[in-house]
């Protein structure tokens, strides 16, 4: 699959600051603030692997399709599709407190 096919549409996401396309073999594509960011790719993949361990009984599918990491100024949104993880870093425009 070509890089253009992997990243189709990622540049058009509103408030997007950068993106990563990751497989088990490493970063397949990157741009913006996440360009060549192997460290963030590794952290996100570890979070995805950990979350994937929480499978529903007997289910072969991943227990989620999208995971968000919300920080003060930006949000990482990781989406699993096929054998790839698409990560987009977006501006966080919602500055409201999260109550636990």
From TrEMBL:
Q: Which domain of life is it from?
A: Eukaryota
Keywords from UniProt, A to Z, are: Lysosome
GO terms, molecular function: guanyl-nucleotide exchange factor activity
Q: Does the keyword Transcription regulation apply?
A: no
InterPro entries in the record, alphabetically? LAMTOR4 (IPR034601)
Location in the cell reads: Lysosome
Q: Which GO terms describe its cellular component?
A: lysosome; Ragulator complex
Assigned protein family: Belongs to the LAMTOR4 family.
Annotated function: As part of the Ragulator complex it is involved in amino acid sensing and activation of mTORC1, a signaling complex promoting cell growth in response to growth factors, energy levels, and amino acids. Activated by amino acids through a mechanism involving the lysosomal V-ATPase, the Ragulator plays a dual role for the small GTPases Rag (RagA/RRAGA, RagB/RRAGB, RagC/RRAGC and/or RagD/RRAGD): it (1) acts as a guanine nucleotide exchange factor (GEF), activating the small GTPases Rag and (2) mediates recruitment of Rag GTPases to the lysosome membrane.
What name does the UniProt record give this protein? Ragulator complex protein LAMTOR4
């Amino acid at each position: 699959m070509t890089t253009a096919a992997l990243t189709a549409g990622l540049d058009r996401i509103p408030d997007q600051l950068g993106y990563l396309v990751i497989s088990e073999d490493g970063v397949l594509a990157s741009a913006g603030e996440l360009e060549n960011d192997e460290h963030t790719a590794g952290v996100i993949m570890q979070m995805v692997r950990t979350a994937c361990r929480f499978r529903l009984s007997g289910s072969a599918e991943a227990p989620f399709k999208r995971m968000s990491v919300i920080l003060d100024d930006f949000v990482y949104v990781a989406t699993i599709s096929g054998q790839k993880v698409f990560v987009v870093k977006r501006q966080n425009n919602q500055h409201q407190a999260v109550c636990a």
